[in-house]
Amino acid sequence: MNSPGLCDILRMIQKALRRGLPGGCNCGEIRYFVTRPFLTAYICHCHRCQKRSGSAFSMSAVIPADGLQIVAGELLATERRLDSGAKNLSWVCPTCYTRTHTRREGSGTINLRVGTLDDTSNISPVAQFWTESAQTWALVTDHILSYPQQPTDYAPLLAAWKRNHPTCL
Question: In what order do the strands lie in the sheet with 21-24?
């Protein structure tokens, strides 16, 4: 039997997206479905993400704000002020405090924490931010966009995602 090709895999992902990609918090109280395609995925090495994740980096997938459907539980919203003065909102499980996603005030997208998906095996980042803060052993060096700080232009990330995840009809 032949292995599935890229278009076969993408068709399976598209079929799953029609139902939604399932995910949730660590304790199981919160359950959700991602119902819209990813726009891009990236790693953040900033010190704040290192502290918030308790790890060397965090990984996020960017999706349209209406692409997350909470089907069980009720998330707790928290906020912090960015250096620019804008609000960054985070949603966490009120029981286990797993952070599922964030959204900058006024943004049409959310940053979903990839680790909260039930299956992360087919999601690979196309970029990494804040490499100047990264643990040297945690840097990805092959085939990924790298930025020493926060990028100001996200078009290359969107283009890289589309290039690596072509649409098959």
Answer: 21-24, 31-34, 68-72
CATH code of the domain containing 68: 3.90.1590.10
Residues sharing a CB contact under 8 Å with residue 123, sequence separation 6 or more, in sequence order: 38, 41, 59, 61, 114, 117
Report how far apart, in Å, the C-alpha atoms of 10 and of each of 21, 56, 118, 149, 166 are.
13, 30, 18, 32, 8
Tell me the pTM.
Answer: 0.79
Boundaries of domain holding 96:
39-162
| Three-state DSSP class for residue 163 | helix
Let me know if residue 88 belongs to a domain: yes
The reply to whether 7 falls in a domain is: no
Q: Please say if the pLDDT value at position 85 is more than 50.
A: yes
Q: How many helices (H) and strands (E) does the chain have?
A: 3, 11
Q: What is the pLDDT of residues 51-67, one digit of tens each?
A: 777 676 778 899 999 99
Instruction: For residue range 1-54, list pLDDT tens digits in order.
Output: 455 666 666 666 665 556 689 999 999 999 999 999 999 998 887 777 767 776
Note whether residue 138 is domain-resident.
Answer: yes
Overall number of domains in the chain: 1
CA distance 62 to 90: 14
Residue 30: phi, psi to the nearest 5?
Answer: -100, 130
Residue 94 in any domain: the answer is yes
